[in-house]
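Handover notes (outgoing to incoming on-call)

Open items:
1. NDP-sugar synthase: sequence verified, structure written out, both below. Nothing else pending on this one.
2. Nothing else urgent.
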Amino acid sequence: MTEAKEAILLVGGKGTRLRPLTVHTPKPMVPAAGVPFLTHQLARARAAGVEHIVLATSYLAEVFEPYFGDGSSLGLSIEYVTEDEPLGTGGAIRNVASRLASGPDEPVIVFNGDILTGLDIRALVGAHATSGADVSLHLTRVEDPRAFGLVPTDATGRVTAFLEKPQTPEEIVTDQINAGAYIFRRSVIDTIPAGRPVSVERETFPGLLAGGAHLQGMVDSTYWLDLGTPQAFVRGSADLVLGRAPSPAVPGRCGDRLVLPTASVAADAKLTGGTVIGEGALIGEGARISGSTVLDGAVVEPGAVITDSLVGAGARIGARSVLTGAVIGDGARVGADNELRDGIRVWCGAVLPDASVRFSSDQ
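NDP-sugar synthase C-alpha coordinates:
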Protein backbone atom coordinates (compact mmCIF):
# COMPACT_ATOMS: atom_id res chain seq x y z
CA MET A 1 0.00 0.00 0.00
CA THR A 2 1.14 3.52 -0.76
CA GLU A 3 2.18 5.34 2.41
CA ALA A 4 2.05 9.04 3.07
CA LYS A 5 5.39 10.00 4.56
CA GLU A 6 4.59 13.67 5.11
CA ALA A 7 1.90 15.55 7.00
CA ILE A 8 0.90 19.11 7.81
CA LEU A 9 -0.67 19.86 11.19
CA LEU A 10 -2.72 23.05 11.42
CA VAL A 11 -2.16 24.37 14.94
CA GLY A 12 -2.48 28.13 14.49
CA GLY A 13 -5.91 28.74 16.03
CA LYS A 14 -6.37 31.05 19.00
CA GLY A 15 -8.75 28.67 20.79
CA THR A 16 -11.07 31.55 21.67
CA ARG A 17 -13.95 29.22 22.54
CA LEU A 18 -11.66 27.33 24.94
CA ARG A 19 -10.79 30.26 27.17
CA PRO A 20 -9.63 30.41 29.91
CA LEU A 21 -7.76 27.18 29.04
CA THR A 22 -5.99 28.94 26.18
CA VAL A 23 -5.03 32.23 27.86
CA HIS A 24 -1.47 31.02 28.49
CA THR A 25 -1.44 27.88 26.34
CA PRO A 26 -2.29 27.33 22.66
CA LYS A 27 -5.14 24.87 22.21
CA PRO A 28 -3.02 21.96 20.89
CA MET A 29 -0.77 22.22 23.97
CA VAL A 30 -3.57 21.97 26.55
CA PRO A 31 -3.09 18.62 28.31
CA ALA A 32 -5.40 15.75 27.38
CA ALA A 33 -4.87 12.45 29.18
CA GLY A 34 -1.67 13.71 30.77
CA VAL A 35 0.18 15.07 27.71
CA PRO A 36 -0.38 18.02 25.36
CA PHE A 37 -3.21 17.13 22.99
CA LEU A 38 -0.88 17.56 20.01
CA THR A 39 1.22 14.63 21.30
CA HIS A 40 -1.67 12.25 20.57
CA GLN A 41 -1.98 13.51 16.99
CA LEU A 42 1.76 13.26 16.38
CA ALA A 43 1.92 9.74 17.83
CA ARG A 44 -1.02 8.56 15.72
CA ALA A 45 0.53 10.02 12.56
CA ARG A 46 3.81 8.27 13.34
CA ALA A 47 1.99 4.97 13.90
CA ALA A 48 0.43 5.36 10.44
CA GLY A 49 3.83 5.63 8.76
CA VAL A 50 4.32 9.41 8.67
CA GLU A 51 7.96 10.44 9.07
CA HIS A 52 8.04 14.21 8.44
CA ILE A 53 5.53 16.69 9.91
CA VAL A 54 5.33 20.42 9.40
CA LEU A 55 3.49 22.33 12.14
CA ALA A 56 1.70 25.41 10.82
CA THR A 57 1.70 27.65 13.90
CA SER A 58 0.50 31.16 14.69
CA TYR A 59 -0.95 31.86 18.17
CA LEU A 60 1.66 31.41 20.96
CA ALA A 61 3.87 29.76 18.33
CA GLU A 62 6.94 29.96 20.57
CA VAL A 63 5.79 27.17 22.91
CA PHE A 64 5.75 24.30 20.40
CA GLU A 65 9.40 23.90 19.45
CA PRO A 66 10.84 23.96 23.00
CA TYR A 67 8.50 21.07 23.87
CA PHE A 68 8.74 18.84 20.78
CA GLY A 69 12.13 19.91 19.40
CA ASP A 70 13.07 18.17 16.16
CA GLY A 71 10.56 15.38 16.86
CA SER A 72 13.15 12.65 17.29
CA SER A 73 11.77 11.62 20.69
CA LEU A 74 8.57 10.63 18.86
CA GLY A 75 10.41 9.06 15.93
CA LEU A 76 9.52 12.00 13.70
CA SER A 77 11.18 14.86 11.89
CA ILE A 78 9.25 18.01 12.86
CA GLU A 79 9.56 21.45 11.31
CA TYR A 80 7.82 24.66 12.39
CA VAL A 81 6.43 27.44 10.21
CA THR A 82 4.89 30.50 11.90
CA GLU A 83 2.33 32.74 10.20
CA ASP A 84 2.84 36.45 10.78
CA GLU A 85 -0.80 37.11 9.88
CA PRO A 86 -3.54 34.48 10.20
CA LEU A 87 -3.96 32.82 6.80
CA GLY A 88 -6.91 30.48 7.34
CA THR A 89 -6.77 26.74 6.76
CA GLY A 90 -5.92 26.88 3.06
CA GLY A 91 -3.45 29.72 3.45
CA ALA A 92 -1.68 27.85 6.25
CA ILE A 93 -1.35 24.74 4.08
CA ARG A 94 0.07 26.80 1.20
CA ASN A 95 2.39 28.70 3.55
CA VAL A 96 4.29 25.53 4.54
CA ALA A 97 4.46 23.99 1.05
CA SER A 98 8.13 24.86 0.58
CA ARG A 99 9.04 22.58 3.48
CA LEU A 100 7.55 19.48 1.82
CA ALA A 101 9.82 16.98 0.09
CA SER A 102 7.11 14.89 -1.60
CA GLY A 103 6.93 14.62 -5.39
CA PRO A 104 4.04 16.21 -7.34
CA ASP A 105 1.86 13.08 -7.31
CA GLU A 106 2.69 11.89 -3.80
CA PRO A 107 0.19 12.12 -0.95
CA VAL A 108 0.46 14.69 1.86
CA ILE A 109 -1.81 14.34 4.92
CA VAL A 110 -3.33 17.45 6.50
CA PHE A 111 -4.73 17.33 10.04
CA ASN A 112 -6.71 19.98 11.90
CA GLY A 113 -5.16 20.53 15.33
CA ASP A 114 -8.40 20.37 17.32
CA ILE A 115 -9.95 17.06 16.24
CA LEU A 116 -9.72 13.91 18.36
CA THR A 117 -10.44 10.94 16.16
CA GLY A 118 -10.02 7.19 15.78
CA LEU A 119 -9.63 7.60 12.01
CA ASP A 120 -7.80 4.75 10.27
CA ILE A 121 -5.20 7.00 8.64
CA ARG A 122 -3.68 4.21 6.56
CA ALA A 123 -7.11 3.34 5.18
CA LEU A 124 -7.65 6.96 4.11
CA VAL A 125 -4.26 6.99 2.38
CA GLY A 126 -5.10 3.68 0.71
CA ALA A 127 -8.50 4.92 -0.50
CA HIS A 128 -6.80 8.03 -1.87
CA ALA A 129 -4.31 5.95 -3.84
CA THR A 130 -6.95 3.53 -5.14
CA SER A 131 -9.34 6.24 -6.32
CA GLY A 132 -6.66 8.39 -7.93
CA ALA A 133 -8.19 11.46 -6.31
CA ASP A 134 -6.65 14.91 -6.24
CA VAL A 135 -7.87 15.37 -2.66
CA SER A 136 -9.42 12.83 -0.29
CA LEU A 137 -11.43 13.86 2.76
CA HIS A 138 -12.22 12.03 5.96
CA LEU A 139 -15.99 12.23 6.45
CA THR A 140 -17.94 11.27 9.52
CA ARG A 141 -21.67 11.05 10.19
CA VAL A 142 -23.38 13.19 12.82
CA GLU A 143 -26.95 13.29 14.08
CA ASP A 144 -27.30 17.07 13.80
CA PRO A 145 -25.15 18.40 10.96
CA ARG A 146 -26.29 22.04 11.14
CA ALA A 147 -23.10 23.22 12.82
CA PHE A 148 -20.86 21.61 10.21
CA GLY A 149 -20.06 21.62 6.51
CA LEU A 150 -21.96 18.88 4.68
CA VAL A 151 -20.15 16.79 2.08
CA PRO A 152 -22.52 14.67 -0.06
CA THR A 153 -20.94 11.92 -2.19
CA ASP A 154 -22.12 9.66 -5.02
CA ALA A 155 -22.25 5.86 -4.93
CA THR A 156 -18.49 5.61 -5.54
CA GLY A 157 -17.61 8.06 -2.73
CA ARG A 158 -16.84 10.91 -5.10
CA VAL A 159 -17.67 14.31 -3.58
CA THR A 160 -20.55 16.08 -5.37
CA ALA A 161 -20.85 19.32 -3.36
CA PHE A 162 -19.78 21.31 -0.31
CA LEU A 163 -22.61 22.80 1.71
CA GLU A 164 -21.62 25.11 4.57
CA LYS A 165 -23.69 24.88 7.76
CA PRO A 166 -27.21 24.23 6.41
CA GLN A 167 -30.17 25.48 8.45
CA THR A 168 -33.39 24.28 6.81
CA PRO A 169 -34.46 20.62 6.51
CA GLU A 170 -34.33 20.92 2.72
CA GLU A 171 -30.66 21.89 2.87
CA ILE A 172 -29.71 18.86 4.97
CA VAL A 173 -29.17 16.42 2.11
CA THR A 174 -26.71 14.18 3.97
CA ASP A 175 -25.44 13.47 7.47
CA GLN A 176 -21.83 13.31 6.20
CA ILE A 177 -19.60 16.13 7.39
CA ASN A 178 -16.05 17.24 6.75
CA ALA A 179 -14.17 15.66 9.65
CA GLY A 180 -10.98 17.73 9.33
CA ALA A 181 -8.40 15.30 7.88
CA TYR A 182 -7.36 15.35 4.23
CA ILE A 183 -4.97 13.77 1.77
CA PHE A 184 -3.72 16.21 -0.88
CA ARG A 185 -1.92 15.28 -4.06
CA ARG A 186 1.23 17.34 -3.49
CA SER A 187 0.80 19.35 -6.70
CA VAL A 188 -2.67 20.50 -5.63
CA ILE A 189 -1.22 22.34 -2.63
CA ASP A 190 0.77 24.56 -5.01
CA THR A 191 -2.46 25.74 -6.68
CA ILE A 192 -3.66 27.41 -3.45
CA PRO A 193 -3.02 31.18 -3.67
CA ALA A 194 0.00 32.24 -1.62
CA GLY A 195 0.31 35.15 0.76
CA ARG A 196 -3.34 35.75 1.58
CA PRO A 197 -6.00 34.17 3.81
CA VAL A 198 -7.69 31.17 2.19
CA SER A 199 -10.34 28.85 3.66
CA VAL A 200 -9.84 25.33 2.41
CA GLU A 201 -13.47 24.54 3.30
CA ARG A 202 -15.10 27.60 1.67
CA GLU A 203 -12.72 28.39 -1.18
CA THR A 204 -10.20 25.66 -2.05
CA PHE A 205 -12.45 22.60 -2.04
CA PRO A 206 -15.47 24.19 -3.81
CA GLY A 207 -13.08 25.76 -6.33
CA LEU A 208 -11.38 22.44 -7.08
CA LEU A 209 -14.77 20.77 -7.48
CA ALA A 210 -16.00 23.50 -9.83
CA GLY A 211 -12.81 23.09 -11.87
CA GLY A 212 -13.41 19.40 -12.40
CA ALA A 213 -10.90 18.02 -9.89
CA HIS A 214 -11.52 14.61 -8.33
CA LEU A 215 -12.36 14.92 -4.64
CA GLN A 216 -13.01 11.65 -2.84
CA GLY A 217 -14.75 11.17 0.49
CA MET A 218 -14.14 8.27 2.86
CA VAL A 219 -16.67 7.80 5.64
CA ASP A 220 -15.00 6.56 8.81
CA SER A 221 -17.43 6.70 11.70
CA THR A 222 -15.11 5.60 14.45
CA TYR A 223 -14.59 7.95 17.39
CA TRP A 224 -14.69 11.64 16.39
CA LEU A 225 -14.83 14.76 18.56
CA ASP A 226 -14.27 18.45 17.82
CA LEU A 227 -12.43 19.78 20.89
CA GLY A 228 -13.58 23.35 20.33
CA THR A 229 -15.29 23.87 23.71
CA PRO A 230 -14.01 23.27 27.24
CA GLN A 231 -16.70 20.62 27.82
CA ALA A 232 -15.66 18.76 24.67
CA PHE A 233 -11.99 18.99 25.65
CA VAL A 234 -12.68 17.53 29.09
CA ARG A 235 -14.72 14.72 27.53
CA GLY A 236 -12.02 13.99 24.96
CA SER A 237 -9.37 13.68 27.67
CA ALA A 238 -11.59 11.32 29.66
CA ASP A 239 -12.31 9.22 26.54
CA LEU A 240 -8.57 8.88 25.90
CA VAL A 241 -8.04 7.62 29.45
CA LEU A 242 -11.01 5.25 29.20
CA GLY A 243 -9.71 3.89 25.88
CA ARG A 244 -12.73 5.03 23.87
CA ALA A 245 -10.48 7.25 21.76
CA PRO A 246 -7.32 5.43 20.67
CA SER A 247 -3.87 6.93 21.17
CA PRO A 248 -0.41 5.39 21.57
CA ALA A 249 0.61 8.45 23.62
CA VAL A 250 -1.52 7.95 26.74
CA PRO A 251 1.07 7.68 29.55
CA GLY A 252 -0.18 4.54 31.25
CA ARG A 253 -2.81 1.85 30.91
CA CYS A 254 -6.33 2.81 29.92
CA GLY A 255 -8.83 2.71 32.76
CA ASP A 256 -11.02 4.75 35.06
CA ARG A 257 -8.26 7.15 36.10
CA LEU A 258 -4.81 8.39 35.17
CA VAL A 259 -2.69 9.71 38.03
CA LEU A 260 0.66 11.15 36.94
CA PRO A 261 3.69 10.12 39.00
CA THR A 262 4.25 13.07 41.34
CA ALA A 263 0.56 13.64 42.17
CA SER A 264 -0.65 12.92 45.69
CA VAL A 265 -4.12 11.40 46.10
CA ALA A 266 -5.70 10.67 49.49
CA ALA A 267 -6.41 6.98 50.05
CA ASP A 268 -10.18 7.48 50.31
CA ALA A 269 -10.52 9.91 47.38
CA LYS A 270 -12.59 8.45 44.53
CA LEU A 271 -11.43 9.04 40.94
CA THR A 272 -13.63 7.70 38.12
CA GLY A 273 -14.80 8.23 34.56
CA GLY A 274 -11.42 8.81 32.92
CA THR A 275 -10.27 11.45 35.42
CA VAL A 276 -6.71 12.76 35.03
CA ILE A 277 -4.63 14.09 37.93
CA GLY A 278 -1.59 16.09 36.79
CA GLU A 279 1.97 16.21 38.07
CA GLY A 280 2.31 17.59 41.58
CA ALA A 281 -1.44 17.92 42.10
CA LEU A 282 -2.88 17.24 45.55
CA ILE A 283 -6.24 15.54 46.09
CA GLY A 284 -7.62 15.67 49.64
CA GLU A 285 -9.53 13.16 51.75
CA GLY A 286 -12.97 12.16 50.60
CA ALA A 287 -12.80 14.12 47.34
CA ARG A 288 -14.87 12.63 44.50
CA ILE A 289 -13.73 13.43 40.98
CA SER A 290 -15.43 12.00 37.88
CA GLY A 291 -14.72 12.55 34.18
CA SER A 292 -12.53 15.54 34.98
CA THR A 293 -9.02 16.89 34.44
CA VAL A 294 -6.99 18.35 37.31
CA LEU A 295 -3.88 19.97 35.87
CA ASP A 296 -0.35 20.16 37.29
CA GLY A 297 0.06 21.57 40.78
CA ALA A 298 -3.64 22.07 41.44
CA VAL A 299 -5.08 21.40 44.92
CA VAL A 300 -8.49 19.82 45.56
CA GLU A 301 -9.32 20.12 49.25
CA PRO A 302 -11.12 17.44 51.30
CA GLY A 303 -14.69 16.59 50.43
CA ALA A 304 -14.84 18.50 47.12
CA VAL A 305 -16.98 16.93 44.38
CA ILE A 306 -15.87 17.59 40.79
CA THR A 307 -17.73 16.22 37.75
CA ASP A 308 -17.01 16.76 34.03
CA SER A 309 -14.84 19.77 34.86
CA LEU A 310 -11.33 21.08 34.29
CA VAL A 311 -9.20 22.54 37.07
CA GLY A 312 -6.31 24.62 35.74
CA ALA A 313 -2.66 24.38 36.69
CA GLY A 314 -1.96 25.64 40.21
CA ALA A 315 -5.64 26.29 40.93
CA ARG A 316 -7.21 25.47 44.30
CA ILE A 317 -10.69 24.08 44.94
CA GLY A 318 -11.90 24.59 48.51
CA ALA A 319 -13.26 21.92 50.83
CA ARG A 320 -16.74 20.60 50.03
CA SER A 321 -17.12 22.76 46.93
CA VAL A 322 -19.15 21.19 44.11
CA LEU A 323 -18.14 21.67 40.45
CA THR A 324 -20.24 20.31 37.59
CA GLY A 325 -19.30 21.16 34.00
CA ALA A 326 -17.05 23.96 35.25
CA VAL A 327 -13.74 25.30 33.95
CA ILE A 328 -11.35 26.82 36.47
CA GLY A 329 -8.48 28.86 35.01
CA ASP A 330 -4.82 28.48 35.95
CA GLY A 331 -4.05 29.76 39.44
CA ALA A 332 -7.68 30.54 40.33
CA ARG A 333 -8.91 29.97 43.88
CA VAL A 334 -12.38 28.68 44.65
CA GLY A 335 -13.13 28.91 48.37
CA ALA A 336 -14.85 26.25 50.46
CA ASP A 337 -18.55 25.40 50.15
CA ASN A 338 -19.13 26.90 46.69
CA GLU A 339 -21.30 25.36 44.01
CA LEU A 340 -20.38 25.97 40.36
CA ARG A 341 -22.45 24.36 37.60
CA ASP A 342 -23.44 24.22 33.97
CA GLY A 343 -20.59 25.63 31.96
CA ILE A 344 -19.43 28.30 34.38
CA ARG A 345 -15.87 29.53 33.76
CA VAL A 346 -13.62 31.06 36.40
CA TRP A 347 -10.84 33.18 34.92
CA CYS A 348 -7.13 32.61 35.53
CA GLY A 349 -6.06 33.95 38.91
CA ALA A 350 -9.61 34.81 40.03
CA VAL A 351 -10.52 34.35 43.70
CA LEU A 352 -13.97 33.23 44.91
CA PRO A 353 -14.40 33.53 48.70
CA ASP A 354 -15.84 30.72 50.82
CA ALA A 355 -19.55 30.01 50.27
CA SER A 356 -19.90 32.91 47.85
CA VAL A 357 -21.37 31.21 44.78
CA ARG A 358 -24.55 29.18 44.52
CA PHE A 359 -25.52 29.99 40.95
CA SER A 360 -24.83 28.62 37.50
CA SER A 361 -23.94 30.40 34.29
CA ASP A 362 -23.74 29.55 30.61
CA GLN A 363 -21.66 32.57 29.72
